[in-house]
């Protein structure tokens, strides 16, 4: 008998979702996030009233690594590359962010020139040594690192993805002479083709390693000192979880730890509710994060960008963000046009209505002024809201210059924020051959229910769903996520003439890596589901599409034919054509997943909004020149099958769900709010 706890550390709040496995009681809590990413977790546990000694499971998700990347708060590192190639970190791909722009401000290089060291020795394109490694050059580099106080080094040598022996020799030499210096190898972090991308990824991993170690050590120490017996598990960028030991070794896998928890919740919902096509929209204080689930599977990406032309490669759910959260600042640009974000008021001072010294109106202030948020029930009534300050700030900054009433200006801010979110959804669906009308939107985070109706209207999606516990859904998702490890290794060859022994050998190599990681997490390979994919492209192309290869290994010609057919179909969907050209294999990928199932009784709802009978209120909506009479009701008062016609606001302790005019909401069998266009 114990509690199972999921926590999600965001930039503003730390969310906690817990289940008591004795009776299924649900506990929800929020606490202010702290700079160390751990203090908020302890505070949330304390506020929840959960006895620390009864916590059996603790799943930890955090945006700390994400924020460190965005803000460039990275540890200084040295870089060891093949002699003559160390400046690839400076040269990059020479792509312009704006093709015809006359001004080009390039991001600063990840490693300064005097900390990039060339090492003599060469591996050729076939993986053969053509020049022995010069270990004396390694010693010189180490001495310079010591003089500069550098404790981490990234090593990325030419063609090490084919033959890692030179990188391993460098690592062994540094361990022998300077065991206090941490060494990160590209052949371990990202054994894939494309020299610059591999080097960039390795440097970013090395720069994150000290921070990941600090967070994990602090988390374990704090939990232990407060009497929590559970060993924390970490939400990864791929939507799975892993042990804190594995997270230390692979810090890049935490790059999207926070948003991935929401995707894990959406995947679970897709399976249990039988809704295979979902667009998940997580709206917090700073950003709106969007991900797409098709056929019950999340869309993944293998590469993201730290800044323009500075890539990082790791398996991650394809979550894209815009600065349109509750704290996003509304303002007028130099031409007098309204804009929302990407600047945010953050947690401190936060929106004007918080009364913490903020002076610039935000999306949250606009929602207060328009009546979409009830100040009496903000965060369950625990937080005092100053609606008058919000109105005054919005009036002087936005409404008066535009010659509008404050309420109509507020509606314009909310509409513009929703439009920007809809544009992001369009980029992730229409522009890759998907039709949003085939999808259901699921809105969560503190602001997801607030904007869901508007997004259903803007995107013409089939419907919208507000799940139970929307404000803490990312924390909720971690508890039900699978243990998932991803691996990749480049292996260039024509598919039609591919050596099957070579392919199956690479698959065996990746399987051995999975054995080690799963063992560290307490599982055996027999408990895992292995899913192999091939990155394929037409000969002459520079970009690949990843497709499943089928059952195995060992793989035969029939498996390769299936993969080729899937590649052709995917290429047709994405680019509206396919070719008869030879197909080339670039990279072999493996995902090893252990399906976890948390055995708990049927969950009981969390505390409801108290003393709130159904009422009517005057609320402003975009497109109307007057306030509309709007139904206000607590979610706890709506039983299964209940129907509410818009305009309406459904309130729960940590979220407000807007039902726009012309839409209607029903309560589903699992307690979810289903929003659809009203019947004629």
Descriptive tags:
globular; nine-stranded mixed β-sheet; alpha+beta; 28% strand; six-stranded mixed β-sheet; Dna Ligase, domain 1; 680 residues; 33 strands
Work out the number of β strands: 33
The shape, in one word, is globular
Count of alpha and pi helical runs: 16
Spans where pLDDT lies below 50 across 5 or more residues: none
Average the pLDDT over all residues and give the rounded result. Answer: 89
Structural class: alpha+beta
| Share of residues in helices | 25-40%
- What distance separates the N and C termini? 51 Å
Question: What is the strand content?
Answer: 25-35%
Main β sheet profile = 9 strands, mixed
Secondary-structure blueprint:
Blueprint: E1 3-9, E2 13-20, E3 26-32, H1 39-48, E4 55-62, H2 64-70, E5 78-82, H3 88-91, E6 116-119, E7 122-123, E8 129-131, H4 135-148, E9 152-156, H5 165-177, E10 182-185, H6 186-189, H7 195-225, E11 233-235, E12 241-243, H8 244-249, H9 257-273, E13 278-283, E14 288-294, E15 297-298, E16 300-307, E17 310-317, E18 320-322, E19 328-332, E20 338-344, H10 363-370, H11 387-402, H12 406-428, E21 440-444, H13 448-459, E22 463-466, H14 473-479, E23 483-494, H15 500-520, E24 529-538, E25 545-548, H16 557-575, E26 583-594, E27 615-619, E28 628-634, E29 643-645, E30 648-652, E31 655-659, E32 663-667, E33 673-677
Parallel strand pairs: 1-4, 4-11, 5-6, 5-9, 9-10, 13-21, 21-22, 28-30
Antiparallel strand pairs: 1-2, 2-3, 7-8, 11-12, 13-14, 14-15, 14-18, 16-17, 19-20, 22-33, 23-26, 24-25, 24-26, 27-28, 29-32, 30-31, 32-33
Helix pairs in contact: 4-5, 9-14, 10-11, 10-12, 11-12, 12-13
């Amino acid at each position: 008998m114990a509690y199972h706890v999921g926590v999600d550390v965001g930039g503003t709040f730390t969310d906690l979702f817990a289940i008591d496995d004795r009776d299924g009681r649900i506990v929800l809590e929020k606490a202010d996030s702290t700079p160390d990413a751990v203090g908020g977790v302890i505070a949330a546990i304390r506020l929840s009233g959960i006895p620390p000694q009864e916590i059996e499971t603790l799943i930890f998700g955090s945006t700390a690594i994400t924020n460190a990347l965005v803000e460039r708060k990275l540890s200084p590192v040295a870089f060891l590359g093949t002699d003559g190639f160390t400046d690839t970190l400076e040269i990059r791909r020479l792509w312009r962010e704006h093709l015809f722009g006359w001004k080009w401000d390039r991001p600063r290089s990840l490693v300064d020139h005097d900390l990039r060291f060339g090492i003599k020795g060469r591996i050729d394109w076939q993986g053969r040594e053509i020049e022995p490694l010069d270990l004396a050059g390694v010693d010189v580099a180490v001495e310079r690192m010591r003089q500069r106080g550098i404790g981490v080094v990234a090593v990325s040598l030419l063609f090490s993805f084919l033959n890692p022996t030179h990188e391993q020799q460098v690592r062994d030499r540094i361990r022998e002479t300077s065991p206090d210096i941490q060494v990160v190898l590209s052949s371990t972090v990202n054994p894939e083709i494309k020299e610059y991308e591999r080097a960039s990824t390795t440097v970013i991993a090395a720069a994150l390693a000290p921070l990941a170690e600090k967070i994990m050590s602090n988390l374990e120490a704090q939990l232990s000192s407060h009497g929590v017996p559970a060993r924390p598990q970490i939400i990864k960028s791929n939507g799975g979880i892993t042990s804190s030991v594995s997270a230390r070794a692979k810090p890049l896998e935490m790059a999207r730890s926070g948003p991935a928890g929401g995707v894990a919740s959406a995947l679970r919902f897709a399976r249990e509710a039988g809704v295979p096509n979902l667009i998940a929209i997580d709206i917090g204080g700073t950003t709106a994060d969007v991900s797409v689930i098709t056929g019950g599977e999340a869309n993944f990406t293998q590469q993201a960008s730290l800044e323009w032309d500075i890539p990082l490669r790791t398996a991650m759910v394809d979550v894209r963000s815009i600065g349109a959260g509750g704290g996003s600042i509304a303002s007028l640009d130099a031409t007098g046009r309204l804009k929302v974000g990407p600047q945010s008021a953050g947690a401190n001072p936060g929106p004007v209505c918080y009364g913490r010294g903020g002076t610039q109106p935000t999306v949250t202030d606009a929602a207060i002024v328009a009546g979409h948020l009830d100040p009496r029930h903000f965060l369950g009534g625990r937080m005092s809201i100053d609606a008058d300050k919000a109105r005054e700030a919005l009036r002087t900054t936005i409404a008066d210059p535009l010659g509008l009433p404050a309420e109509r200006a507020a509606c314009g801010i909310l509409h513009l924020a929703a439009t920007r979110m809809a544009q992001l959804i369009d980029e992730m669906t229409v522009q890759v051959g998907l039709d949003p009308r085939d999808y259901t939107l699921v809105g969560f985070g503190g602001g997801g229910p607030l904007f869901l109706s508007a997004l259903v209207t803007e995107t013409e999606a089939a419907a919208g769903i507000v799940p139970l516990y929307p404000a803490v859904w990312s924390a909720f998702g971690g508890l039900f996520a699978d243990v998932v490890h991803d691996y990749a290794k480049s292996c260039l060859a024509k598919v039609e003439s591919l050596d099957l022994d070579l392919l199956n050998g690479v698959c065996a190599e990746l399987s051995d890596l999975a054995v080690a990681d799963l063992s560290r997490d307490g599982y055996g390979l027999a408990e895992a589901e292995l899913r192999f994919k091939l990155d394929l492209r037409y000969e002459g192309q520079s970009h690949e599409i990843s497709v499943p290869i089928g059952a195995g290994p060992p793989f035969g010609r029939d498996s390769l034919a299936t993969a080729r057919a899937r590649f052709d179909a995917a290429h047709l969907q994405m680019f509206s054509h396919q070719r008869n050209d030879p197909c080339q294999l670039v990279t072999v990928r493996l995902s090893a997943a252990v399906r976890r199932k948390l055995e708990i009784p049927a969950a009981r709802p969390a505390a409801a909004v108290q003393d709130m009978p159904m009422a009517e209120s005057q609320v402003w909506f975009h497109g109307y020149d007057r306030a509309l009479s709007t139904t206000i009701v607590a979610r706890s008062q709506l039983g299964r099958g209940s129907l509410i016609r818009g305009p309406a606001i459904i309130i729960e302790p940590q979220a407000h769900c807007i039902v726009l005019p012309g839409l209607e909401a029903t309560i589903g069998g699992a307690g979810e709010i289903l929003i659809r266009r009203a019947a004629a």
